[in-house]
Specification:
Layout lengths: L5 H10 L63 H5 L11 H7 L2 E16 L6 E14 H5 L5 E11 L22 E12 L3 E8 L10 E2 L2 E2 L15 H5 L9 E8 L7 E10 L19 E12 L10 E15 L1 H5 L17 E18 L7 E11 L8 E10 L9 E10 L2 H12 L9 E14 L2 E11 L10 E11 L1
Antiparallel strand pairs: 1-2, 1-18, 2-3, 3-4, 4-5, 5-8, 6-7, 8-9, 9-10, 10-11, 11-12, 12-13, 13-14, 14-15, 15-16, 16-17, 17-18
C-alpha cells in the first residue's frame, strides 16, 4: 500500500468528522495486539461496537469483520440502513475505511450511567453521570512507510452526579462517575512493537490499560459488562490502596511487555508510572508535569493464555499474577481514612501520625470460556474472578475479590445481547475496627467498620452495533463499610453510543 503524502493526509483529516468509532483489537492475531483501555472500546468498555477490521498494532484482519458497511454514501439510504451501520456516524462515504487502511483510526463514544436507590442507604436519590470521549490512533508505518510506532490520543469529558455519596459506598455504583468531572487528557503516548516479541509504550497513560486490567472475550471487556465501578476496569482496591493510575487520568509513564513465544501464550511485563493524587482533581484535567509527584508506581505482571479463540479451538482462558511497589510516603491507614467511617460528632483522638514509605501489594486474575454454542459460534458463557491483596500498614481494603459470569447470546435472534451476574467482597483494614473499639472504651459512639459487599445482575441489549442499553440491579451490603445504614437496592440504567 502506498503511504499517504502529507497534503493527502491533511485533506482526509479535513473531510473527516471528529466523532468516530472506536477500534478494538482482534482476538486471535499474531503478534498479540495491544488491547485498548477496557473503558474505551467495545461494550466491555461501555461502548457497544463491532471491532474495527484492522488491528491497531498488527494490521491483521479481525475475525469480527463479517460484512462490509451497508451504507455507501455519506448519509444512510434509510432508517433501517442507519441501524445496520457499524458506527452511529457511519462509514463517511467510504472515507473511514480509507483512513483505517492508512493507519488513522478515530474513536468516539458517549456513555451515561443512571442509578437510584429506592431501598436502603442514608437517603433516597437518583443520579445521572456521563462521559463523552474522542480520539485517534495513528499507525505511522501505514501512514508514512516509516515504523515509528502508533500514536494514541484520547480526550474525555465527564459530568453529572454520583449516587455513592448518598448511599454512601466505598466504590461508586456508577463506574463512569469520578476522577474529577471535567474535560481531561486521558492518553497521549507512542507505542512500538518489536517483531512481536516486545511491546513498549511511553507518554501520558493510565496503569489500568495494562496492569490488573480486564481481559477481552468476544471483543468485549468482561469486567465492564458491569456498571459497578468495583468490577469495571480493574479491581478497584488497586486504586484505593496505592498510586495506581486509573482511567481516565493520564500519568507520565511507560511499560515493557515481553512475549517470549511471539504470541499471547506467555506475557512478562513491567512498568513505571508517576504517582500524583492531585491529577484526579477537577482543575487538573490537563496536568502533565511532575511538580506534585509523591513517588513512582512500579507494577509487574505475568500472564498465561491457553486454548484457542472464542470461536475456534479449545476453550480459551487466562491467568495473570501481578504485584506492585509504590515508593510514595503516606500516612498510616487509620490516620488517613478512619474519619470517613465515623458519624458526625465522634471525636477522633490519639490518631497515629507515623508515615510509611514503600506501599506494596499484588493480584491474581483468571477467566475461562466455559462453553460456546457451536463450532465457530460467537455466543457462549464465560466466568472470571480476581483477588487483590494490599499492604496491611497502609491499605484501606487489604483483601478484595470480584467475580462474574457473562453469557453472550440470550434469546433467539439476540446473538449480541448479554446477561451478566457478578459481585465484590471488600474487607476493610482491621485497624479501623481496633481504633473504633478504643474510641468506644472512651465513651464515643464509634462504629466498627468491617466490609462492604455487593452483587449485580443486568441485561445488555444491543439493538444495533452502535447502541447499547443495559438495565440492571445492584444490592449493597453494609453501605460505606459499616452497619449504620440499611442494605441498599440500586436500580441501574446505562446507555452507550459509538460514534
Amino acid at each position: 500500500m502506498k503511504p499517504l503524502s502529507l497534503p493527502s493526509l491533511a485533506l482526509l483529516l479535513a473531510l473527516a468528522p471528529m466523532t468516530s468509532g472506536s477500534a478494538a483489537a482482534a482476538d486471535d492475531t499474531t503478534p498479540p495486539p495491544h488491547v485498548p483501555s477496557s473503558r474505551v472500546g467495545g461494550y466491555g468498555s461501555h461502548i457497544p461496537s463491532t471491532p474495527a477490521p484492522v488491528s491497531q498494532t498488527t494490521g491483521a484482519q479481525s475475525p469480527y469483520e463479517q460484512a462490509p458497511q451497508v451504507e455507501q454514501g455519506v448519509l444512510p439510504k434509510s432508517f433501517d440502513a442507519w441501524l445496520k451501520q457499524t458506527y452511529m456516524t457511519g462509514n463517511w462515504g467510504g472515507l473511514r475505511d480509507r483512513l483505517v487502511d492508512h493507519g488513522v483510526v478515530f474513536q468516539g463514544h458517549y456513555l451515561e450511567d443512571s442509578s437510584g436507590n429506592p431501598v436502603g442507604g442514608r437517603a433516597r436519590a437518583v443520579r445521572y453521570a456521563h462521559e463523552v470521549g474522542g480520539g485517534v490512533d495513528i499507525d505511522f508505518k501505514k501512514l508514512t512507510g516509516t515504523d515509528v510506532g502508533i500514536l494514541h490520543f484520547l480526550v474525555t469529558e465527564r459530568a453529572g452526579l454520583g449516587l455513592n455519596a448518598v448511599l454512601p459506598a466505598l466504590n461508586s455504583v456508577q463506574q463512569i462517575f469520578g476522577s474529577g468531572e471535567t474535560v481531561r487528557l486521558t492518553r497521549l503516548s507512542l507505542e512500538h512493537n518489536f517483531g512481536g516479541y516486545a511491546d513498549v509504550e511511553a507518554g501520558w497513560v493510565n496503569t489500568e490499560n495494562d496492569f490488573g486490567q480486564s481481559t477481552m472475550h468476544w471483543g468485549l471487556s468482561v469486567y465492564c459488562q458491569f456498571q459497578s465501578n468495583a468490577i469495571c476496569g480493574m479491581p478497584q482496591s488497586l486504586a484505593m490502596n496505592s498510586g495506581y493510575g486509573y482511567y481516565p487520568t493520564a500519568h507520565p509513564g511507560a511499560y515493557l511487555k515481553l512475549y517470549p513465544l511471539r504470541d499471547d501464550r506467555i506475557l512478562v511485563s513491567a512498568g513505571i508510572y508517576n504517582v500524583d493524587s492531585t491529577i484526579s482533581n477537577t482543575h487538573n484535567g490537563w496536568k502533565m508535569g511532575l511538580h506534585d509527584s509523591t513517588g513512582a508506581y512500579l507494577p509487574f505482571q505475568l500472564g498465561w493464555h491457553h486454548g484457542g479463540t472464542d470461536r475456534r479451538g479449545a476453550l480459551p482462558g487466562n491467568i495473570r499474577v501481578g504485584g506492585y511497589w509504590d515508593s510514595s510516603e503516606v500516612l498510616n491507614t487509620v490516620a488517613a481514612h478512619v474519619g470517613s467511617f465515623q458519624p458526625a460528632g465522634v471525636a477522633l483522638v490519639d490518631l497515629p501520625q507515623d508515615k510509611v514509605r514503600g506501599r506494596f501489594g499484588g493480584w491474581v486474575q483468571f477467566d475461562q470460556l466455559l462453553q460456546r454454542d457451536g463450532p465457530g459460534s460467537n455466543e457462549g458463557t464465560m466466568v472470571f474472578g480476581a483477588f487483590t491483596w494490599g499492604d496491611p500498614r497502609t491499605a484501606e481494603v487489604p483483601y478484595f475479590a470480584t467475580w462474574g459470569i457473562v453469557r453472550k447470546g440470550t434469546f433467539a435472534g439476540r446473538p449480541d445481547d448479554t446477561i451478566s451476574l457478578g459481585g465484590k467482597f471488600a474487607i476493610l483494614n482491621p485497624k479501623y475496627a481496633q481504633y473504633a473499639a478504643m474510641l468506644q472504651q472512651l465513651g464515643e459512639p464509634a462504629l466498627r467498620p468491617s466490609g462492604e459487599h455487593s452483587v449485580e445482575l443486568n441485561y445488555g441489549w444491543r439493538p444495533t452495533a452502535w447502541v447499547g442499553i443495559r438495565p440492571g440491579l445492584q444490592y449493597l451490603w453494609h453501605p460505606g463499610g459499616t452497619n449504620l445504614y440499611r442494605n441498599a437496592l440500586i436500580l441501574d440504567f446505562e446507555t452507550a453510543l459509538t460514534f
